[in-house]
Every structure is written in C-alpha cells, then in structure tokens.
Design goal:
6 helices, binds iron/sulfur cluster, Fumarate Reductase Iron-sulfur Protein, Chain B, domain 2, 114 residues
Length: 114
C-alpha cells in the first residue's frame, strides 16, 4: 500500500490491492448499466426486503464495486428478485439482473449465495 504520510482508521480503509473485484467485473461485462449507478439509494428505499430487514441494495452495490464480497455473499440471498428496485432506478440500472449475475458469479466459484 502507498504511504501518503498519514493513515485512515482501519475500519475506514478499502484495500483495493487485497480485495477481489472479479465479481464486479463479471457483472460489468454482462450488465453494463451497473456502471451507471450513482449510489443514490432509490433502490434501497423501495426494496421489499429492505422494508423488513436491514438489507440495502445501495450498500450491496458499493461493496460489489469495492470487491468486499464476503458481506455481499451473505446479504444477496435475502433478495426476492421482485424487481421493484429496477422500476425506480433513476439511472436505468437493471438492478434485478445485477443481483442475478452476482449470485451466478458466486455460484461459478462454487460459493453458494442463494
Ligand atoms: S437506484 Fe439505481 S442509481 Fe440509485 S443506488 Fe440504486 S442502482 Fe444505483
Ligand atoms: S429485486 Fe431484490 S433488491 Fe430489488 S426491490 Fe426486490 S427484494 Fe429488493
């Protein structure tokens, strides 16, 4: 990691050298609209699962982009694939397909996310 002469709190650090962003790459390749996400949270506000649990698609999107996949793997199984988030996204991100592809990417690695 580069030494900038100061450091961030450990909990605030994102180690891109260590993180695995291949799940994000898998999604970008098959659903390019994922690149348009501005992390506004509209999807989370309307999410059916989010109304009953602390599940947040906005957070999932951020974690996937960062390559912090462990929490994503645990969380995305809560998604019911109802598609409400896709209807409200102001950027036209096919969020439902993003989640489907994320699950598919985990499965191809032999990791069960469903
Ligand atoms: S509503 Fe669309 S742009 Fe906003 S956080 Fe969700 S996926 Fe991203
Ligand atoms: S498809 Fe999943 S993330 Fe989107 S609104 Fe439905 S339960 Fe929430």
């Amino acid at each position: 990691m580069v030494d900038f002469g100061f450091s961030l709190l450990k909990a605030r650090q994102i180690n891109y050298d260590h993180n695995d962003r291949s799940i994000a790459g898998y999604i970008y390749e098959r659903e390019p609209s994922f690149r348009l996400c501005i992390e506004c949270g509209g999807c989370s506000a309307t999410c059916t699962t989010g109304n009953f649990t602390r599940f947040s698609l906005r957070e999932i999107n951020i974690l996937i982009k960062r390559g912090e996949n462990e929490e994503v793997r645990h969380e995305i199984r809560k998604c019911m694939l109802c598609g409400k988030c896709t209807l409200v996204c102001p950027r036209g991100v096919n969020t439902r397909n993003v989640i489907t592809l994320a699950k598919e990417a985990f499965q191809k690695r032999g990791i069960n996310a469903i």
